[in-house]
């Protein structure tokens, strides 16, 4: 790719802007595990030949690999969504003690409103917990410029930097001018420095003292940096804001005064007090937790915050007005199209068989989580990545009412499922683990993983064998089935559930998003249809009921033939082709 150093216009999302800003900063290494809303950061970095960008098996490994690159003297970045950072918390907390060599930035994308997440935790809480600086852009253009400042801060203060986005900043696009070049930096030497990087208790105690000194210096920096900027207009009303909340407040009250915190931790107490003294009435506007509001209260700065009901979900310009009026939030169920598995999805027949078997299904994170919804309704737990197998272990050992099955995807199994399988084997667990192998990381848009044989940057690599991994972990039986062979799958499930063994069944069929080949669409012979509704129980988007007739949308139909297999009257057959 060719890059220019002169100023030019760009139209980028927040995630793309982070990637381009990191490139401009001279980043040499980036690692992540895909997770919405952060995925496009690494996908964009993967397009740049000037650096090494890679998918890791999980966020902890991604963090540690990127940190290793920092130790080697190259600027490095890791990216994840908010729940992904939970997986990397162990190295984060200790590398805050160790500090860095070259600049190291941890980009995290929160998801207020839970558009693609199981919770809406506020990652800002982690910065004071770990005692590392927190940077919050409010727009893609700020993301581009602020990420470059984050690398400088990391090196100047010998610290990892937490760089927080939210869904709206990650996915909003903005047109702005910037110098899209690349800053080539001199390499730093990899040093053998056990006192700094070997965190045994004696060393860690010294590093903790150093961490406290660094955070004091960062407090002084926070007071001076232009990342925290005051805009004085009408002094009757002033706002303390950070992140996308700044845009909502400015849209609602463009003539008000603002203190926008681009670096919200360490909290710039003096600057905030100086701003508050010039304002007749100060409001603090922020999504999710009262993070800034609590800081104001600790420092005795009077301001109007939000009622507890506003701790849930996203804000908006109207929400800012309601908060100022001290109204309670009215949470309304959003009217939206119910999420569905794609036409021809290989997870659909697997869930059909599981539901018919009457088992209790411990689920995991992936497209297959949609198997919990009616009419499939064949998944009964889902908490976090890799939890299905440990849940299955505890459930199967503590109750006898149901046979239990763990369901997990291929990418999620590699992420944190393997350790659960090893634990189940070690502790003598009996039952069935079903790996739904659609040969890609599908939920986040089709990213490569160790079982696909390709890297993020398209290089051919060693392909992980799920069968060999399961056998090596100690599974008694490993079967590979085509999920569309529902009778064969039913028989092997019934067989393995009846044995005193721990079995793994791999239901393998490629995701329709990576293998788009279609067979002739199915058609329903209305003269033969007895309206048994078995085909509707598949929850296929191509099958609908209109004016008392069950019909198949031939444009949507992938031709998988599953509906034909469950039809009791033989009313469904392939058409003449497309």
Query: Helical stretch count?
Result: 20
| CATH architectural designation of the largest domain | 3-Layer(aba) Sandwich
Estimated share of beta-strand residues = 15-25%
CATH superfamily of the largest domain: Thiamin diphosphate (ThDP)-binding fold, Pyr/PP domains
| Helical coverage, percent range | 25-40%
Rg, rounded, reads 27 Å
What is the number of strand segments? 22
Measure the end-to-end span.
40 Å
Major β-sheet strand ordering:
3-2-4-5-7-6-12
Q: Indicate the CATH topology of the largest domain.
A: Rossmann fold
The main pleated sheet reads as: 7 strands, mixed
What is the CATH class designation of the largest domain? Alpha Beta
Question: Which regions are unreliable across 5 or more consecutive residues at pLDDT < 50?
Answer: none
Q: Total domains, how many?
A: 4
User: Which of globular, elongated, flat, extended, rod-shaped describes the shape?
Assistant: globular
Q: In terms of structural class, how would the helical and strand content be classed? A: alpha/beta
Mean of residue pLDDT values: 94
